[in-house]
């Protein structure tokens, strides 16, 4: 593989993908979203095309012009954009939204993947270049979970799996074997804040993906910002599904967690 | 039945139970919670015993002294009290909390029911005196759901049933076949606000109970305050499970909804 497309959403995830790919000698051609993508991506890639979320056609032209046959999709795109009046979908995107059976995140991502496939671009596992940053089993931090926290994690596992399988969200917040918050479209950090606001200190956060999760996109991921949210609200335990969760800026994340006596554990 | 106990939580629900029971010639002996119960309950019952949430023993004494054999439990008790430092559980309540396998709402309510049973008080269906206020199938308001809203309700039904069966919560907020918010411990109105904040206008709210729901307590209920929340955030559609949802202050609720062009429908 000498070059790859990168469909870039928010956070440092696409930047990390670009850096890792270029380290392996692969050229990176990025489609970046004005509403989402970090401007620093520009310096990390070989070529970049900035589009607004509505402008799918422009992305198609860029990928075709540069003869891109394989691509990785990295970083979130807030689904709430589809309710925003400032986003003007072009003909391609309108067609894609009209054909979608519902507007769940994974339905729309799959629609984008199928669309790319039709124009000759195959989407690959988004963690392809970042295998070292996938969570492994066991504690990643100095602090390990207590017996009580482990009991809360065991309580939460089947619930968060079911919630993920219903394609609602991938995170729940528990304490003392009660479900305090379930993530839907508002995002992980907001769910952590809500649950911790009820729990006071010591909420336990558990993140898992659906058993049917398509690893080409929307892989569960955690970055330093989640640890910062946990610090703000005094949450102490973060359990992540091993083998299926990606850490963004892993070293910084673990350093932050260790400094705040937060336990991050792969389950 | 010449007399009944009433374990009273928040809202006007226990007041409506007391009024309806006394209309049928049944005397009402209420255990009221200082942290939850509306002071107006006092005028609507024959005898009242005000306790703090921690003082289960006081409630036992009151029920025994008045020879209460049957009781109804009406109105919410915020589960978050168990995390509050101001609540001091007495020996009875400590014992009950220690024995409970988890701290889900229905686990604790069942534990209270079993506890009452042991002291000779049988808990009855909480809607016993309010059968006319149970939601029936079809629109309760002048406005009926549109084709799009009906499609969103159909989309939501299996999801909210599954969420209820997981004993997370009974309400979800959807729009254009996407799940915007799932209720956990924060309560219905907060979930409606959160979902509507993402959806802008026109969120669809669907409330259903678990198939295994114990109708003695925590029956899904909607009062005028939920309609007021919907008005604030421009939500227009409220779908409620027929036969299993109770309307509090039904006439006022429907009047409010009609005045705001809100559709309330039994499904």
Automatic annotation (TrEMBL), chains A, B:
Domain LpxI C-terminal: 136-265
InterPro entries reported for this sequence: LpxI, LpxI_C, LpxI_C_sf, LpxI_N
Record's protein name: DUF1009 domain-containing protein
Annotated source species: Candidatus Taenaricola geysiri
Residue ranges annotated for the LpxI N-terminal domain, each copy included: 3-131
Superkingdom, natural source: Bacteria
């Amino acid at each position: 593989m000498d070059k790859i497309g990168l469909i870039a959403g928010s956070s440092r995830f696409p930047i990390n993908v670009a850096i890792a790919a270029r380290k392996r000698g692969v050229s990176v051609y990025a489609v970046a979203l004005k509403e989402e993508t970090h401007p620093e991506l520009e310096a990390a890639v070989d070529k970049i095309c900035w589009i607004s979320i509505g402008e799918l056609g422009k992305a198609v032209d860029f990928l075709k012009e540069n003869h891109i046959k394989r691509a990785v999709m990295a970083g979130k795109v807030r689904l709430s954009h589809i309710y925003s009046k400032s986003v003007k979908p072009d003909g391609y995107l309108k067609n894609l939204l009209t054909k979608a059976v519902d507007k769940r995140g994974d339905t729309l991502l799959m629609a984008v993947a199928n669309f790319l496939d039709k124009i000759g671009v195959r989407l690959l596992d988004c963690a392809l270049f970042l295998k070292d940053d996938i969570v492994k089993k066991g504690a990643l931090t100095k602090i390990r979970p207590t017996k009580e926290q482990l009991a809360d994690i065991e309580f939460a596992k089947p619930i968060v799996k079911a919630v993920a399988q219903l394609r609602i969200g991938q995170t729940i917040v528990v304490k003392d074997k009660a479900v305090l918050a379930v993530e839907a479209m508002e995002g992980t950090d907001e769910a952590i804040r809500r649950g911790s606001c009820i729990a006071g200190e010591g909420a336990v956060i558990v993140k898992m993906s659906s058993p049917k999760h398509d690893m080409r996109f929307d892989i569960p991921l955690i970055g330093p910002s989640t640890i910062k949210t946990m610090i703000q609200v005094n949450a102490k335990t973060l359990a992540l599904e091993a083998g299926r969760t990606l850490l963004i800026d892993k070293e910084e994340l673990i350093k932050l967690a260790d400094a705040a006596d937060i336990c991050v554990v792969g389950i």
